[in-house]
Design a protein that fits this description.
275 residues, alpha+beta, 2 domains, 6-stranded antiparallel sheet, binds fe (ii) ion
Length: 275
């Protein structure tokens, strides 16, 4: 290790701990940090102003004085120890936890911004993702659009999931997670670590194809066609050896089960028709 690299590493560790001490003093530790294994992770925070483009209730947003309010917390690239880290990185995967406290964004329930995943280089198949609800209740909205016309819907699926349930986002589906409950939602996901999510199409269309309000789903008029929602239930994914109720992190010990996330083109017979 060079001296310069050592100094940078030391500075990074010290600054992280200064942040943790600061958060403890502010009383925000519970929300902004997560103890995972023997490590403490610090959240990436989505604030209300980050959500502006995808909100149903623009009038409310214009009037609110809380644009810097925390909306949800993302703890990315979690590992319980250095051995797990090596295995996870070696398989090009990432394990994340997202925490979404309950609340309303004006007239709609709190939610994630929503995104698509890019295609695997050299294929026309995009990366899938697997979620598990750890605490609370989640409403997953999955949508598929025409490749050339992102405002033309091909499919809209809603899956409500409870603690332990698994939800697979198949290739080609954009996804938003909504917390329509009165409790904090905590969910985990495994996904390929080699790409960045694509946020622009959902932002350009002011959100996903539907917004969840207190009296049900409201259609987003910016999508050209009307497709009714298909309501589905969470499944076990026996073909991949994934069973609801089994903690998703422990797959790190049988990580080959997750090859479908990094090379979905080799698993199309299982992935097509998954929703
Ligand atoms: Fe995703």
């Amino acid at each position: 290790m060079t001296l310069g690299y050592g100094v940078i590493l030391l500075a990074t560790v010290i600054s992280k701990w200064i942040l943790v001490v600061y958060l403890v003093k502010k009383g925000n530790l519970m929300e902004l940090t997560l103890k995972f294994g023997n490590k403490v992770a610090v959240a990436d925070v989505r604030k209300l102003h980050d959500m502006e483009d995808v909100l149903f209730d623009k009038e409310w947003f214009e009037k609110t004085e809380e644009i810097n309010k925390d909306i949800y917390y993302m703890f990315r690239d979690l590992t319980k120890n250095d051995d797990d880290l090596e295995v996870i990185k070696g398989h090009h995967l990432r394990y994340d936890i997202t925490v979404i406290p309950p609340g309303m964004l004006g007239l709609e329930y709190t939610k994630t911004v929503g995104h698509y995943h890019p295609q695997i280089p050299g294929t026309d198949i995009s990366y899938p993702e697997i979620y598990q609800v750890l605490e609370g209740s989640a409403t997953y909205l999955l949508q598929k659009v025409e490749h050339e016309n992102e405002d033309v819907l091909l499919d809209v699926v809603v899956i409500t999931a409870e603690e332990g349930d698994l939800v697979l986002v198949p290739p080609g589906y954009g996804h938003v997670t909504i917390n329509a409950s009165e409790n904090t939602l905590k969910m985990a996901n495994w996904v390929c670590r080699d790409f960045s999510s694509i946020y622009e199409p959902i932002k350009r269309l002011s959100g996903a194809s539907y917004f969840l309000l207190k009296d049900g789903f409201a259609k987003n008029p910016l999508y050209k066609n009307v497709l009714p929602i298909r309501y589905l239930k969470p499944l076990d994914y026996n073909n991949f050896g994934l069973i609801s109720g089994e903690n998703l992190y422990i797959i790190v010990h049988k990580i080959e089960k997750l090859n479908f996330l990094t090379s979905p083109q080799n698993f199309l017979r299982y992935l097509t028709g998954m929703v």
